[in-house]
Write a structure and sequence with these properties.
Layout: H1 2-8, E1 11-12, H2 24-35, H3 48-62, E2 72-75, H4 77-89, E3 95-100, H5 104-112, E4 116-121, H6 138-144, E5 149-155, H7 167-179, E6 183-187, E7 212-217, H8 218-221, E8 230-233, H9 236-247, H10 257-267, H11 270-292, E9 296-298, E10 305-309, H12 318-329, E11 331-332, E12 334-335, H13 343-346, E13 356-360, H14 365-377
Parallel strand pairs: 1-11, 3-4, 3-5, 5-6, 6-7
Antiparallel strand pairs: 2-8, 7-8, 9-10, 10-13, 12-13
Bound molecules: 4'-deoxy-4'-aminopyridoxal-5'-phosphate.
Amino acid sequence: MSALAVATGSVNLGQGFPDVDGPQAAIRRAVAALESGANQYAPGPGVPALREAIARHQQRHYGMDLDPMTEVVVTTGATEGIAAAMLALVEPGDEVVVLEPYYDSYLATIQMAGGVRRPVTLSLDGSPDATPGGRLDPAALRAAITPRARLILLNSPHNPTGTVLSRAELQAVADAAIEHDLLVVTDEVYEHLTFGVAHVPIATLPGMWERTLTLSSIGKSYSFTGWKVGWATGPAELVGALLAAKQWLTFTSGAPLQPAAAYALDELGQWPVELAASLRDRRDLLCAGLSDVGLDVRVPEGTYFAVTDISRLGWADGDAFCRALPERAGVVAIPLQGFYDPPTDSGRRSGAGRHLVRWTFCKRPEVIEEALGRLGKADLRARDQER
Ligand code: PMP
């Protein structure tokens, strides 16, 4: 879709990457590190300064006491953390319970490890045509857990629905994990991008630290998605297992960005706060505008994505809608089908998420306004053959 955006001169509200860089002071640190010789392999678990900064970050925000030497490991983005966690913890045939819609690398890495996914669909308020509610149904979670279950792969704040799991929802996950003796891998890359609701790491719930690997990265919080500096935290045994898998993926992550990431975490804590405040305004701008053009919008509590239901404009298929959109309106968005199990794979149902489309609001306000202006002028209703 990003290639389509470039080819058609469209405003790209598809892929989630900010169009303004992260803090200049951190960029200067990265340049200084490059120029002062931080150009050879970093230690496998990450440079100590960054591991210590990550430990301090978890302490400051969540009151967690981590040993930076054994309970923190630096990864090449959260993406590597996800892959390494699956390869480390999932044996062939093990089942992984995962929230659906899900971030695409989950499916691929569960498969790489030989695991079998058991999706728990975030409820869409009953009717398939309703605006997505995106809440976790504890009964659906329990129904997905079989004796083959090994771990629960969680994501909160959640891409693409923007749901931030509440303490009660997290407690339901924790209860199930403890009862069935499951591990939890939790992807918290949007931890600081919430709007008026608190993000609670599941590792802070009673009985959960010892069974949870928490993943995050610098990419979203500091608008450095291209840096690919991430981390995993958890008990030494789980972090050690992840590190063993990482050894055969990248061995060690890029050295010069690590001191700069440490600096951002330690010294620029206000930056993500301001980013979240500005994203909240941009969320409101985008959601109001999408609603004005006739789409049903779910206002997200976190992340930088909003999901719309396209049924009211006569469309049944988000893929067809998103393919028509660049030509009709000069805007690019992403269909949600790809975040759901392929219908043939699970045999459970067909067309889940077909009527849903994701839009990002991590672009400058004037870019969002331009996109909304274009959408406002276009005829977005489905034509007969598109229904
Ligand atoms: N997890 C989720 C839910 C994401 O949305 C993304 C980025 N789109 C990632 C992980 C990837 O994070 P990173 O860039 O740090 O690898």
